[in-house]
Design brief:
Distance between the termini: 111 Å
Radius of gyration: 42 Å
Helix content: over 70%
Number of domains: 1
Largest sheet: none
């Protein structure tokens, strides 16, 4: 290589080093050059992603809360159904083999007691007297 070419290559490398050092110092001092607005676009995309994640988290929280309420209601209904089935089973065991034609006083009382007990499990049903 000729000495002139080496001189030009040396000057080019020196100029490149000056540009790199200037950019590094400028960024270190907080200077930014963004003629196409890419940083603003990235910031808008980040904000949109954060808003989406927050709304998604809120929706998941509402889903969990709804599932918890549904499980509580299901447990309540299952408990009421079991209690009603137990009451009916006890009544059937007590009255098994008795004649249905004339209802004696004791049998009528047992039927009323069973009715009150069943209405106690589900007072909102039609025909149930309101609880005192």
């Amino acid at each position: 290589m000729s000495p002139a070419a080496l001189r030009w290559m040396g000057r080019g490398l020196a100029l490149l080093a000056v540009v790199v050092v200037t950019i590094a110092l400028g960024r270190g001092l907080g200077l930014r050059w963004d003629p196409l607005g890419w940083e603003a676009r990235r910031e808008a995309a980040r904000e949109q992603a954060i808003a989406h994640a927050q709304s998604d988290a809120q929706a998941r929280g509402l889903e969990v809360q709804g599932e918890r309420r549904q499980a509580e209601r299901r447990l309540d209904v299952q408990t009421r159904v079991r209690a009603a089935a137990d009451a009916v089973g006890r009544f059937q065991a007590e009255t098994k083999g008795q004649d249905d034609a004339p209802l004696d006083i004791n049998r009528r009382e047992r039927l009323r007691d069973l009715d009150r007990e069943l209405c106690g499990f589900a007072p909102e049903l039609e025909g149930c007297a309101p609880a005192p």
